[in-house]
Amino acid sequence: MTPQTLAIYAAAAVAEIAGCFAFWAVVRSGKPVWWIIPGIAALTLFAWLLTLSPADAAGRAYAAYGGIYIAASLGWLMLVDQVAPTRWDVIGVGLALAGCIVILAQPR
Question: Are residues 13 and 65 in contact, defined by beta-carbon separation less than 8 angstroms?
């Protein structure tokens, strides 16, 4: 995985998590409904960023992105939710990232 690909997937993950969090905050945490507006913008940015993936097919781009998303979600867990990941969380991230690398590194 090139640094550029990693940057694209990392930015997409932050955008997706932020967008979903905006909806979560409105529904589950009682934030004002206008929080959905930046949430929609973030989810739109997420979708556009995934189109920049070097993967040759959309499904492959989404599959490879999944590992980065899982890792970013645990980062969100620690930084925003202020919850420490468990040993199982860390093992799961390792497996997901290994899958991401396998998908992106396959011969073309």
Answer: yes
Distance CA(58)–CA(47), nearest Å, equals: 11
What is the DSSP code (8-state) at residue 57? S
CA distances (Å), origin 100, targets 13, 64, 90: 14, 4, 15
The structure tokens listed for 98 are: 């290994």
Return the closest-CA partner of residue 17 out of 69, 61, 53: 69
Residue 7's contacts (CB-CB under 8 Å, 6 or more residues apart) are: none
- Characterize 3-39 residue by residue with b for buried, 16 or more Cβ atoms within 10 angstroms of its Cβ, and e for exposed: eebeebbbbbbbbbbbbbbbeeebeeeeeeeebbeeb
- Under the banding of pLDDT at 50, 70 and 90, the label for residue 49 is very high
Let me know if 100 is exposed, middle or buried by CB neighbors in 10 A (0-12, 13-18, 19+). buried
Q: What percent of the chain has pLDDT over 90?
A: 67
